[in-house]
Design goal:
This protein has about 240 residues and is an alpha/beta fold. The chain is built from nine helices and seven strands. The strands form two sheets. A five-stranded mixed sheet has the order 1-2-3-5-4, with helices on one face. The chain has a two-stranded parallel sheet with strand order 6-7. The termini are far apart.
């Protein structure tokens, strides 16, 4: 009642019934959001499997919290947050990933969950041609610039590490899996395996899925970039300057 009359919009995409509830004063571009989801939800079906039966998205202006928060089959994003943020990521894809993911992160698996959600919020629009390769690379560069390096990702709770360092490590893993398999496998294959397994997501289970996808042991890479927190080499971004993933 305090927010006034709520406008509701419904659309079914790839078997997922999406309802968007918009409070008065929220400038959310609902049509733009449905266009984005029309391209990216089918991609998530191929990565995470069958979607939840329904999704409720709530958008509201001040004085509501200036951020995003996911729950069971639903999430909230403040109305002033654009579909594409200045850093080129998308809160509406990030929170959707969390709602959809069929696994639950343990304490040392939180970096995996956050890193995947943020990385795919940049990578999926890029795959669908909504970002140019150069814009995608700029988004990756912002991950590096604003990341917290030198910290153990399995232990830290610093937002800069979870929201910037972790997704850049995900990109590096994607790049390296593609490299060692001559492009036949990628990060999607590891996430698909985790989604099929379900249950509790840990760093160890993620490493097993990565090793299975790559066909080799990535433990040394994890030591450098996950446990010691070293930033990945720039050559992965240089390779992507002309090719979208």
């Amino acid at each position: 009642m305090l927010l006034g009359r709520i406008a509701r919009y419904r659309h079914t995409i790839a078997g997922l019934e999406v309802t968007v509830a918009v409070a008065p004063g929220s400038p959310l571009d609902v049509r733009g959001l449905f266009r984005l989801y029309g391209k990216t939800i089918p991609l998530l079906v191929g990565i995470l499997g069958a979607p939840p039966p329904r999704l409720l998205i709530v958008s509201a202006p001040d004085p509501m919290w200036h951020g995003g928060l996911s729950g069971e089959d639903s999430f909230f994003v403040h109305g002033r947050i654009p579909i594409r943020s200045p850093d080129k990521t998308c809160s509406y894809l990030h929170e959707l990933f969390h709602v959809w993911q069929p696994f639950h992160p343990s304490a040392d698996g939180r970096w995996v969950s956050e890193g995947l959600a943020e990385y795919y919020s940049l990578a999926l629009p890029n795959r669908e041609g909504r970002l140019s390769p150069q814009t995608f690379v700029r988004g990756l560069a912002l991950f590096e610039r604003y990341g917290r390096w030198g910290s153990d990702l399995t232990r830290t709770r610093v937002p800069a590490a979870l929201n910037n360092s972790a997704p850049l490590v995900m990109h590096w893993l994607d790049h390296e899996i593609r490299r060692v398999t001559d492009g036949h496998r990628c990060l999607d294959d590891a996430v698909r395996s985790l989604a099929h397994e379900g249950g509790t997501l840990t760093t160890a289970s993620f490493l097993r899925a990565i090793n299975q996808a790559a066909g080799r042991d990535f433990t040394p890479l994890f030591r450098r970039h996950v446990y010691r927190g070293e930033p990945p080499p720039e050559r992965a971004r240089e390779d992507d300057a002309g090719v979208g993933h």
